[in-house]
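Researcher: Quick test of sequence recovery. Tokens follow.
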């Protein structure tokens, strides 16, 4: 059935949406016909203007045809100039602006990618994320495999339609979640490794639940204790059914405690898995007709070792991936260098995603050294605990002084929360365990990061990136703020 009930989609297709989300690809003749039929007015859109394309076929798809790879490409705009301090070869600074074109719309980069782990931002509707100027959302293949199951999302017409998100989507491969069960750690960036050496280190009090072999990973589900198996082929099968615009190859995540010998073995294994992911991705793209093209990014591991990161980057660059994911454990001080080492090996035409970034200074370091997109769970997770991001650092709203503070969460912020609600009220809601407290705090924190990346993008195009970076970081960390 080709009946659209989507007023928003119509607006986007006619180019009246914000400049952030004009479509990259031209309408095919059949799409234009469908569009004309919608415009002529069946009356359906008036009855249900807010249900986004529920009955429309997925954007960018052609019945009976495999996904068209030409719908995904990166267009580079402004690049930072090289300087003697540049971390890349010959002082290269890879920071840049550009546009990632996907079948579900464009992503203007550098861009912040909010994390909707289980196909939902906790407490915030996708319509609100649109208002915050979010361009895309990232979900978790492992969690969606556990529930509701990839088959249900496939039947619903893919992730974007399932969650009513009118824009591009990402899924990670599930490798991070599966392998985190092995070490018992949830977080790898900026890990404190003092005194830790063993390959089998387990976080205190945590049971090891995942085991790696040459073919894949066997693990126990944290949800129900069932035993599962993930491999390159299984991850590709799940991610194809989930149907995000951008997927990641299945890789082995190591921690900073693994020995150098293990890291070497691991990147070679990740390279073998990467080749298998590409083969399976190509097979599924050809086999699953009538679906939009899904881009596949290879992931570079190698922990803190420059030579291993460079080797892994060359391996991933030698394969026909659409983009690259910078993953795994990295000490905070090496985040910028690691991005530059990887960019040294990577063709400029491939977009680069930094997986799971956490802090404002890390974002500047990654942008300057070539990161295009960044996902981060921190704004939503912190919001639920009452931690509020502002230009002057992060504060906890539950401080006693906020009980009678009838100003906004952040003076001068343009978000819905700050223009309608007070600190005192949000503090009250969070203390009372009211869901609206988390919702209002999340709206503000997500807007903080989206706006930060919007500002950074404008500063690169406008030639004042260094000024913005220095002023932002000096102000943000002036009061000793962490994160
Ligand atoms: Zn705000």
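Model:
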């Amino acid at each position: 059935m080709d009946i659209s009930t989507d007023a928003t989609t119509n607006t986007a297709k006619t180019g009246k949406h914000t400049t952030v989300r004009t479509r990259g690809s031209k309408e095919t003749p059949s799409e234009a016909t469908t569009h004309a039929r919608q415009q002529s007015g069946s009356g359906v859109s008036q009855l249900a203007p807010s249900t986004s394309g529920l009955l429309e076929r997925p954007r960018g798809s052609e019945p009976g045809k495999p996904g068209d790879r030409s719908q995904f490409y990166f267009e580079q705009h402004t690049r930072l100039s090289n300087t003697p301090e540049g971390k890349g070869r010959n002082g290269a600074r890879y920071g840049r602006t550009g546009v990632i074109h996907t079948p579900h719309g464009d992503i203007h980069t550098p861009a912040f990618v909010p994390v909707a782990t289980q196909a939902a931002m906790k407490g915030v509707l996708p319509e609100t994320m649109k208002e915050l100027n979010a361009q895309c959302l990232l979900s978790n293949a492992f969690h969606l495999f556990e529930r509701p199951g990839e088959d249900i999302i496939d039947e619903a017409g893919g992730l974007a339609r399932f969650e009513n998100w009118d824009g591009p989507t990402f899924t990670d491969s599930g490798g991070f979640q599966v392998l985190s069960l092995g070490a018992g750690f949830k977080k790898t960036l900026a890990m404190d490794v003092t005194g830790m050496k063993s390959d089998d280190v387990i976080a205190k009090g945590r049971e090891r639940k995942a085991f790696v072999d040459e073919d894949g990973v066997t693990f126990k589900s944290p949800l129900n204790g069932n035993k599962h198996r993930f491999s390159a082929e299984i991850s590709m099968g799940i991610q194809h059914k989930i149907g995000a615009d951008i997927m990641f190859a299945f890789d082995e995540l190591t921690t900073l405690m693994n020995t150098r010998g293990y890291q070497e073995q691991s990147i070679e294994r990740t390279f073998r898995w990467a080749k298998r992911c590409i083969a399976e991705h190509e097979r599924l793209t050809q086999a699953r007709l009538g679906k939009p093209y899904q881009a596949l990014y290879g992931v570079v591991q190698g922990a803190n070792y420059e030579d291993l990161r460079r080797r892994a980057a060359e391996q991933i660059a030698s394969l026909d991936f659409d983009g690259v994911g910078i993953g795994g454990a990295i000490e905070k001080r090496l985040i910028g260098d690691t991005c530059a080492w990887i960019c040294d090996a990577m063709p400029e035409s491939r977009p680069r995603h930094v997986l799971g970034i956490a802090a404002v200074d890390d974002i500047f370091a990654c942008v300057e050294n070539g990161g295009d997109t960044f996902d981060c769970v921190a704004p939503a997770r912190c919001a639920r605990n009452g931690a509020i991001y502002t230009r002057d650092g992060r504060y906890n709203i539950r401080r006693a002084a906020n009980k009678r503070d009838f100003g906004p969460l952040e003076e001068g912020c343009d978000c819905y929360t700050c223009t309608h609600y007070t600190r005192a009220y949000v503090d009250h809601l969070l203390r009372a365990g009211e869901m609206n407290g988390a919702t209002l705090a999340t709206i503000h924190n997500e807007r903080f990061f989206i706006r930060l990346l919007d500002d950074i993008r404008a500063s690169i195009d406008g030639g004042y990136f260094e000024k913005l970076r220095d002023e932002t970081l000096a102000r943000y960390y002036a009061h000793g703020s962490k994160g």
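DSSP finds 18 helices and 16 strands in the chain.
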